[in-house]
Write a structure and sequence with these properties.
Blueprint lengths: L2 E4 L2 E4 L4 E7 L3 H4 L1 E7 L6 E6 L5 E3 L7 E6 L4 E6 L8 E8 L15 E2 L3 E6 L1
Parallel strand pairs: 2-11
Antiparallel strand pairs: 1-3, 3-8, 4-5, 4-9, 5-6, 7-8, 9-10, 9-11
Length: 124
């Protein structure tokens, strides 16, 4: 299984970006897909996740601003990021898990597959 993230870039605060994560293999349609991010000098943190049936869990820091979605037919996941803030600056990673329970959804070690990351830079 391979994940390919794209769509990062540089924007000013208040701007928007849309990230994409394309997946190969049947894992995409079986499991949970998620976005994590890692800011410079910080640990990787959970952003949001989506189940195959569309159920979503998001970090409080992005609720109301970021929207995760997935197109199972295209094996692609998206992250629409609006009202971006400088503190959103990070490398964003997509991840996939074929078997995960809700209580572990924010734990990055539970995800077996990872994309290469795409950089998002938000200037003030």
């Amino acid at each position: 299984v391979q994940l390919q993230a794209s769509g990062g870039g540089s924007v000013e605060a208040g701007g928007s970006l849309r990230l994409s994560c394309s997946a190969s293999g049947r894992t995409f349609n079986r499991g949970v897909m998620a976005w994590f991010r890692q800011a410079p000098g910080k640990e990787r943190e959970f952003v949001t996740a989506i189940w195959r049936n569309g159920n979503i869990v998001s970090a409080d820091s992005v609720k109301g601003r970021f929207t995760i979605s997935r197109d199972n037919a295209k094996s692609t996941m998206y992250l629409q990021m609006n009202s971006l803030k400088p503190e959103d600056t990070a490398v964003y990673y997509c991840a996939a898990s074929t078997s995960i329970i809700l209580s572990q959804i924010r734990n990055d070690v539970q995800y077996e597959h990872w994309g290469q990351g795409t950089l998002v830079t938000v200037s003030s």
